[in-house]
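quick one, 209 residues, struct below
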Amino acid sequence: MGLNAYIQGFNSLESIDRAPGYFKYHHHSVADHCFRTAELAQMMGDIEEVHGNKKINWKALNHDYTERFIGDIKTPVKYATPQLRKMIGDVEETMTTKFIKDEIPEEFQEIYTKRLSEGKDDTLEGKILSICDKLDLLYEAYGEIELGNPNPVYMQMFKESLETIKKFDDLVCVQYFIKKILPDLFKGDFAGKDKMQRIAFSILLLGDD
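---
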């Protein structure tokens, strides 16, 4: 038993593909996603602290570590039914608990139980994590659309990601993203740009869910 198994788990995350089964120009691993989500969360947290006068306690750095046990399950599958989502969550929790019990030294087990638990909750930090999880997916989808990937799944990913982000528009960081950052995505010329703009307009201005 030792922290070596936890460290070796990083390699597993590097070998798990995001959006498995779909053609893509850019291949992203779960490890890539974990890093980008953590960096995005820090950026959005900075916005909350500077423009919203809030204090952030970080919890995003271990996002999706537990996917080393179950892989990256496609979002439409994971959320197909509440029952299936609960079953997947139960399996992930059981395997994580077993990993902590078998591999993490006893004096650290309580720490890692908290660290590897689902961070998306009703706290400000949990909300930012939820936002940035979808923000990274939005940029993954945008990257494929910009390069001309014809698979409609990426436009759907863009739409669903923006819909989720919009649900948190009471937060200063989301307001800032919508006003200051999102418009930059539409400055270039690429196939799919007009459709993306229409989707964004529908979600953000018309409130179309």
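The longest helix spans residues 30-52.
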